[in-house]
Amino acid sequence: MKKILLIALIVTSAITAAIVGFQVWEKDPKSLVSYQVKPCMEGTEKSTGKDNEETIEVKDVYARPHVNKGDKVKALMNWYGCHKVETGDLVLYRYSTNQEPVIRIARATPGDRFKLVKAKDRDAWNIEVNGDLVEAEGKPYFFGTDQVPPLGLYEKANRGILQPNHAIILSAFPPGYQDSGLFGVVSIDDLIAKVVPASK
Q1: Residues 39, 44, 48, 49: is their CA dihedral positive or negative?
Q2: In 3D, which of 118, 82, 98 has the Cα closest to residue 191?
Q3: Are 44 and 82 in contact (CB under 8 A)?
Q4: What are the phi and psi torsion angles at 141 (to 5°)?
Q5: Most buried among 74, 107, 145, 175, using CB within 10 Å?
Q6: What are the backbone dihedrals phi and psi of residue 147, each rounded to the nearest 5 degrees, phi first?
Q7: Which pTM was predicted?
Q8: How many other CB atoms sit within 10 Å of the CB of residue 19?
Q9: Minimal CA–CA distance to 188: which of 18, 40, 33, 27?
Q10: Could you tell me the sign of the dihedral formed by the alpha carbons of 173, 57, 24, 168, in that order?
Q11: pLDDT tens digits, 48-95
């Protein structure tokens, strides 16, 4: 009897999970389908992205003062399918297929050299890109704890050189959230749009 009840519970859980997944898909299909960087089509290399422009609302505070929570901004969808990521770009980063993407700042792009440096004033890490210390609000950007973060493992494995299709994105101020300080190097395939403040 107990085995029967256990099997029934497992089957019920599986069905529930499938239904929840289906509901997420139906509620916001763009999060699972449209937010995919597609190869650049012939003749669109210099596209302005206006054909794929969407207006989105900023959902958190981690890109201020560039954009603030509640602001309406332009998202040039699939921009990085046809254009290189530039240092300083505001990017729409998809870190999950069932969570809304977030806006962060590109701090290092393919070919850049980076180095993690132990912070002098706290149990955290600073980061240098091409020999320059990354700063926020006039002070060294910091993240993590005294433990080596994922970026440190990538640095060791790749001699501190960002490989093709990889980027480092950070929040506008430390210690950041849902960015390379937590996840490490990100795939450019997950940078689904370039973000432009609506006033520009």
Answers
A1: negative
A2: 82
A3: yes
A4: -70, 135
A5: 107
A6: -80, 150
A7: 0.78
A8: 10
A9: 40
A10: negative
A11: 555 688 889 999 999 999 999 999 999 998 899 989 999 999 999 999
